[in-house]
Design goal:
This protein is mainly beta. Helix content is about 5%, strand content about 50%. The protein contains 1 helix and 19 strands. Strands 3, 5, 6, 8, 10, 12, 13, 15, 16, 18 and 19 form an 11-stranded parallel sheet that branches.
Length: about 160
């Protein structure tokens, strides 16, 4: 029997058999007794360390890179990110965003192109086209432009349940 605060042997086995990168699931031991498995969201991706751009930062030019990115500041230019990209609430982007998965909570003036999923939070304002295999738009979001779902399905609306 493990001591309180330590993972149980069952939790260790589950985490070893189902690595964090596999299937997007997270293994966690609660109080050393129970094991819970949580489904990951786009921003919880195990793709390595996240690159953060602070709210006081302004970038002008083209951005390319690999891995998760979170932009809180202002960007004027285009990007092509091989990984998930998040534009946080208060963040501003003027140009084309292209990434594997995209979460928008800020303001975009330009096109948004996701190779997979797009999540538009209720605080987001987009002036330009959106495209992705699946697109989820929260109540309150403003989109002035075309929405193109490349998987053939219809756009999905959802209510944001996460609170900052």
């Amino acid at each position: 029997m493990p001591r309180r605060g330590q993972p149980s042997p069952a939790a260790s086995v589950i985490c070893m058999l189902a690595p964090r990168a596999l299937l997007g699931y997270l293994c966690a031991a609660i109080d050393g007794e129970d094991t819970m498995i949580f489904k990951r969201r786009i921003q919880d991706s195990p793709a390595g360390p996240t690159t953060f751009i602070a709210a006081t930062t302004k970038i002008v030019g083209t951005i390319t890179g690999q891995g998760p990115y979170v932009f809180c500041g202002t960007v004027e230019g285009d990007c092509d990110i091989n990984g998930p990209l998040t534009l946080a609430e208060g963040g501003r982007w003027k140009g084309t965003l292209k990434a594997n998965d995209i979460i928008l909570a800020g303001t975009v003036e330009g096109d948004v192109v996701a190779r997979a999923r797009v999540e538009i939070a209720g605080t987001a304002r987009v002036t330009g086209s959106l495209s992705g295999n699946s697109i989820a738009v929260a109540e309150g979001a403003v989109i002035e432009g075309e929405i193109k779902v490349t998987s053939g399905g219809a756009p999905v609306k959802f209510q944001e349940k996460r609170h900052p």
